[in-house]
Design brief:
heterodimer, A: 403 residues, mainly beta, Methylamine Dehydrogenase, Chain H, 4-stranded antiparallel beta sheet, B: mainly alpha, 27 helices, disordered N terminus, lipid transport (chain B)
Chain lengths: 403, 834
């Protein structure tokens, strides 16, 4: 275990890509995770941190018809969330409602609130306005941007406006500005575009940027964090898009996703395909003016941006979510279905430190026997899952042979 | 005194008491022993000591007996004495007093006697005076009479002589006037004579003497005379002028001539101006000379011929002309006494022009040796001039200018150095743009730039050494006396010269390397707004930077860090050790305050370049992998994998991928050194699956035709994955060929895996990937070093594809094998003719 952080594990049955913080749940620290299984029935897990904070409890397990490629929890209703799914050639996006549980776990069916139909190509993501109650919803597919008007009580969703980003722009994702409900950023092949939702027009863009993921800083307006296509993390000031304000090294392989802490400014979490999650502190305030003399500055004065690296994952980490209720907790989801919840015990210290623009790198003994054991166990679980699959397949094959 | 007085008072009181006692009682010794019941009259005064003492009565008695206060007081004192002392004491006192009285009496007698003698002699004197005074009165009267007669006689003489004296004075005046007139009439002739004998000084003296008269009477009586003499003076002036301007005359004579001219009220200023103009003209000629000199030396420099023989002639000519100039200045200075400021200005101008010429030369990037010769020439000129004109403080001025020139030179040397390197580096970019095919363009560029770095730094050092030497020589050239004077005046400056140079060179290096690093970053497109001050080249769009260039930069940074900096440091240390300057340059860093630290910090520069080197290497890898990622993305985005057709051959993208790898390999091979051959072996046993993977061709597993078995491969892979060590894919990159290539291959394969995970495949799609990967397994072995990791990643790709496959049925190994073999044959066929 890490010196300043403790991890809690939870295994999803199948491979998975997406996890989301249930922001509207103010009583518990909960997360929603969706699986990505081609052949089995997919599931949505509602995970809740136990009151003691020592384990992740599965509060609800709901079956989902298709592979879940994107999942987002509604920021104002803890029972509502959206998914983007596809199976083979079919694709779709929908808003779901978790049924009333009444204590029992055995109600596997999700209630559909609305289906976001109308997309003509593969859907990338569904975005909720992250800050509060807002009756709009944005969905992004490879070429189009849809603005939906959602009525959760009437269980309807209607396309309010729709705009194509152009054939040349192959959209990959986006983020909604928490400070401005009319502004949205979309990532595409070679640029980041900023759209105004009132006019449905592109207002600005960062050209020549191959961006995999974007996130807005919840605390500091005009700050956007992007995960560059080939590693690196860039921090931008939206008022000056020529050069990034700062850049962080990112991961050795792709940096898949970046998430800004909802409370502490400049605290950035990144997950990568190198099976690691890194916690960064971008002291963007200090960087602004010291960028010029960063070379001249002696090494002791240069701030080490990497606070911690969590790297006992078996596979690429795609899912990442800060808890908005307890901002020193985050959940990560690696492709093999292992959900890790980390509590940075020194996070309160971090908060203090962030405000003071100081740095204390939390480092502790890594690896060790414990990690090795856990790794073996998780491998075994995975192995058993696949063994089952194979046996299933071979049974069919046997049938074929007999036939 | 008081005490004495007190004593005398006591004595008197005692005496009084003695008297009283003798009066009231016949025997003083029995007085105290009187019985208390004696008569009241007796008891009155002696009753003090008795028991029957009545104060009032006693006082009354005292009042009666001693009316006088003084006596009463004395009496009281006496009483005190009597009360205090006993009988023997009193008796003793009495004896003492008696002796004293006797002494006093003898003293008195002596005094009286002496005074009497004096009185007698005084009376005698007075008597004699009275008799002498009687004759004096008559003598005095006689004296008065005689004096009166003398006065009257002298008055008589005075009145009689008065008339004659007036006359004599008049005559004398007339004679003087006549003499003057005679002189003026003679003046023209005299002047003529003077002109003939060239006694101009006398002539001028005469003329100036006659001037007042000419002024007063020139218009009337002496008209002719004046005219003639003026003519003569005009001739004199002409002659003098000629004398002043003729260089043949001695300076003294010329100076005298000027003095005379000045006395003749001739406008000397215009003369001065004329002469000065002459000097200036001289200077212009001289400057031309100096230009010629430097030009000639540049020409020599331009030609490869190192012999500097043609330099000698102009140099001596130059020296001669400067000497001449110095002489002229000396003459001028002597001739015109208060002309120093003007001359100082002139000579300073001269030096300034000299340095301007030098500056132009510096801009033309002359060789340091030339700079040194130029400086030396200037210094010798300055010394020559300083001898004649110490007031101008030329050495001071020249030293300061020289410092500026040297500073300029150093900075220009550094900027040229930077330009050289950038040229060398930019050749890569240029070539790639122009598309000129060269065998090893990158290697050539790297070598060129490395050479540029070394040569540039060594040039700077050479210059530094030479310049340091110049300071030494300059000081040596300066004559002993001069040097001492200079030392007295500005010892600080001279002593600081070397330190200053050292500081500049060090600062220059530090600055240079910082700039170089900035420039590199700019080139690589990694710099942000802040470092855009380096306006060496227009910023290039980020997309157009050749990856090869980045690699060259990476290796160049490494080179600078590992060999250039140590060499520079070594050279520096050597230099300072030789110059004996080590102490001053290292402790406190010369003039530069120690609080700033030494100007050139090799460790810091090394650190900067190490980090940039790593950064460039990563950038290169990033650029390359990005390109491959794009390739992969295109490959996987295009087809509909769910409806993929059965694989017939290895897909084209594999060729593209391999081609890309090959390109990287050629680039890397040119630039990076070969690493130590070191294969990444799995340390522990991986079970049958792993060992079979390491030699898949001969494995019997391939002979199994059963798909079921093939399927179990996947399972085995997973089993293997479970038991083997976590594969370290993302190891640290070293600056070696193998490390870089392997890293790129690994990253590309990882990307492939990630891209695969985003798709959904049907059986044929899966088989296609399987085929492609299988082919890669053979081919990548040649390229990448870390076989285990590459194998592992390839397997991972297959596993990932299988996971994303709706129906993961692998291709039968024989088919797989056959297809791979065909492809291999095809590629070798393609390679053969080429």
């Amino acid at each position: 275990m890490q010196g300043g952080s403790t991890g809690i594990g939870y295994g999803l049955k199948y491979q998975a890509r997406c996890i989301s913080d249930v922001k509207a749940d103010t009583d518990h620290t909960s997360f929603l995770a969706g699986t990505l299984s081609l052949k089995e029935e997919n599931e949505v897990h509602l995970l809740r941190l136990s009151s003691g904070g020592t384990e992740l409890i599965c509060e609800g397990l709901f079956s989902h018809p298709n592979e879940i490629w994107d999942l987002a929890s509604c920021p104002f209703d803890q029972r509502i969330f959206s998914t983007v799914f596809s199976s083979g050639e079919t694709y779709g996006a929908a808003v779901w409602q978790i049924p009333e549980l009444y204590g029992q776990l055995s109600s596997p069916q999700l209630e559909s609130v609305a289906s976001l139909d109308g997309h003509t190509c593969k859907i990338r993501c569904v975005l909720w306005w992250p800050t509060g109650r807002h009756d709009k919803l944005v969905s992004v597919d490879e070429q189009n941007l849809f603005l939906w008007s959602l009525d959760t009580s009437k269980k309807t969703a209607q396309v309010q406006s729709q705009e194509s980003a152009g054939m040349l722009h192959y959209l990959t994702g986006g983020a909604w500005d928490p400070h401005d409900s009319n502004s949205i950023s979309l990532t595409c092949d070679s640029s980041v575009q900023f759209w105004d939702l009132r006019t449905m027009k592109k207002t600005n863009s960062i050209e020549h940027a191959h961006v995999r993921n974007v996130d807005y800083d919840m605390k500091k307006r005009y700050t956007l964090v992007t995960a560059e296509d080939e590693s690196g993390i860039h921090i931008w000031d939206l008022r000056n898009l020529k050069f990034p304000v700062a850049d962080l090294p990112g991961h050795p392989h792709w940096t898949w996703t970046v998430k800004c802490n909802p409370v502490y400014e400049g605290l950035i979490l990144s997950a990568g395909t190198d099976s690691a999650v890194n916690l960064w502190l971008a002291s963007s305030l200090g960087r602004n003016d010291s960028a010029s003399d960063s070379l001249a500055a002696p090494p002791t004065r240069r701030i080490e941006p990497l606070l911690n690296s969590y790297n006992d994952y078996e596979d690429s980490v795609y899912g990442l979510a800060w808890s908005s209720r307890e901002p020193w907790i985050f959940a990560s989801l690696s492709y093999d279905g292992r959900c890790g919840l980390w509590r940075e015990q020194k996070m309160s210290d971090f908060g203090f430190l962030v405000h003071r623009q100081k740095i204390c790198v939390v480092e502790g003994p890594r690896g060790g026997h414990f990690n090795q054991e856990r790794r073996v166990i998780s491998c075994l679980t995975l192995f058993i899952e696949q063994w089952k699959t194979l046996r299933h397949v071979s049974a069919i094959n046997d049938l074929d042979v007999k036939a | 005194m008081e005490v004495e007085g007190g004593e005398t008072l006591d004595d008197k009181a005692k005496r009084m008491r003695d008297l009283l006692l003798s009066f009231y009682s016949p025997d003083p010794s029995s007085a105290s022993s009187l019985p208390p019941n004696t008569s009241s009259r007796f008891a009155t005064l002696d009753s003090i000591n008795t028991a029957s003492f009545d104060a009032e009565q006693y006082m009354n008695l005292l009042d009666l007996s001693y009316r006088d206060e003084k006596v009463k007081d004395r009496f009281i004192r006496l009483i005190h004495v009597v009360q205090k002392s006993n009988m023997e004491g009193l008796l003793h006192k009495h004896v003492e007093m008696a002796a004293e009285i006797k002494n006093l009496d003898t003293d008195l007698q002596m005094l009286v006697y002496e005074n009497y003698n004096k009185f007698i002699s005084a009376t005698d004197t007075i008597k004699r005076m009275k008799s002498n005074i009687v004759g004096m009165e008559t003598n005095m009267e006689q004296l008065l009479e005689k004096i009166m007669s003398v006065q009257s006689r002298s008055d008589g003489v005075n009145t009689s002589l008065f008339e004659k004296r007036k006359h004599i004075e008049k005559l004398h005046r007339t004679r003087n006037l006549l003499r003057k007139v005679q002189f003026i009439y003679d003046l023209p002739a005299r002047l003529e004579k003077c002109i003939k004998s060239e006694a101009y000084a006398d002539a001028v003296k005469f003329y100036t003497g006659a001037m007042p008269i000419f002024k007063a009477y020139g218009d009337s009586s002496f008209q002719d005379c004046k005219r003639q003499s003026e003519e003569a003076v005009a001739i004199i002036i002409n002659n003098l002028e000629g004398k002043v301007f003729s260089d043949a005359e001695s300076i003294q004579a010329r100076a005298e001539a000027v003095m005379l001219l000045k006395q003749l009220d001739f406008p000397v200023e215009s003369l001065k101006v004329k002469l000065f103009e002459k000097l200036e003209q001289f200077l212009v000629d001289l400057n031309l000379d100096s230009k010629e000199l430097t030009n000639s030396s540049v020409d020599v420099n331009g030609s490869p011929d190192p012999g500097r023989v043609p330099d000698a002639a102009p140099a001596t000519a130059h020296e001669a002309s400067v000497r001449e100039f110095a002489e002229a200045v000396r003459a001028y200075k002597v001739i015109f006494l208060d002309s120093e400021p003007q001359l100082s200005k002139l000579t300073q101008d001269f030096v300034r022009k000299h340095f301007e010429a030098t500056h132009q030369q510096i801009e033309k990037q002359i060789h340091s040796a030339d700079l040194v010769t130029i400086l030396r020439v200037i210094w010798s000129d300055v010394l020559l001039l300083d001898e004649v004109l110490p007031e101008a403080s030329l050495p001071d001025f020249a030293l300061q200018s020289a410092l500026v020139a040297v500073k300029d030179y150093i900075s220009s040397a550094f900027s040229h150095f930077l330009l050289h390197i950038s040229d060398a580096v930019m050749k890569v970019q240029g070539r790639q743009k122009e598309g000129i095919e060269e065998e090893y363009p990158l290697q050539a560029a790297l070598e060129a730039s490395q050479k540029a770095v070394l040569q540039g730094s060594m040039n700077v050092f050479l210059a530094h050494t030479l310049i340091s030497n110049v300071w030494g020589q300059l000081i040596l050239n300066t004559s002993e006396q001069e040097f001492r004077r200079l030392l007295d005046e500005n010892s600080g400056l001279l002593l600081k010269l070397r330190d200053l140079t050292i500081d500049w060179v060090q600062e220059g290096f530090q600055d240079f390397f910082r700039k170089l690093d900035d420039y590199f970053r700019l080139l690589s497109g990694k710099s942000n707004v802040a470092s855009q001050e380096v306006n060496l080249l227009e910023r290039m769009p980020g997309d157009k930077i050749a990856a090869g260039l980045v690699l060259v930069l990476a290796q160049l940074s490494l080179f600078i860090e590992q060999s250039a900096i140590p060499r520079i440091t070594e050279a520096r240390n050597l230099l300072y050790f030789c110059g004996g300057e080590i102490a001053s340059s290292f402790s406190g860093g010369g003039v530069r305050g120690s609080e700033y630290g030494p100007a050139f910090v090799p460790a810091e520069v090394c650190r900067i370049f190490r980090s940039s080197g790593e950064m460039f290497l990563h950038l290169y890898i990033n650029m390359r992998t990005q390109k491959i990622s794009v390739l992969l993305k295109k490959r996987f985005a295009a087809p509909n994998w769910v409806k993929h057709k059965e694989p017939r051959e290895v897909h084209m993208f594999v060729d593209l991928l391999l081609q890309e790898f090959e390109e990287i390999r050629t680039e890397v091979k040119q630039i990076l050194p070969q690493g130590i051959l070191r294969k990444h072996r799995r340390t522990d046993s991986n079970g049958s699956a792993a060992s079979s993977r390491s030699n898949p061709l001969r494995d019997d597993r391939l002979n199994r035709s059963n798909t079921q078995k093939a399927r179990s491969q996947l399972l085995e892979t997973h089993l293997a994955k479970l038991f083997k060590q976590k594969m370290e894919i993302f190891t640290k990159v070293e600056q070696t060929q193998e490390s870089v290539i392997t890293t790129i291959v690994k990253l590309s394969l990882k990307s492939l895996q990630e891209v695969v995970r985003l798709q959904t495949f049907n059986r044929s799609g899966f088989q296609q990937i399987q085929l492609d990967i299988h082919f890669l397994k053979f081919t990548l072995k040649r390229i990448a070093e870390d076989e285990a990791a590459v194998d592992f990643l390839l397997d991972e790709v297959i596993v990932s594809t299988a996971e994303r496959c709706l129906d993961p049925v692998p291709l039968e190994p024989p088919i797989l094998d056959r297809l791979v073999q065909t492809k291999l044959a095809k590629t070798s066929e393609q390679n053969m003719p080429s």
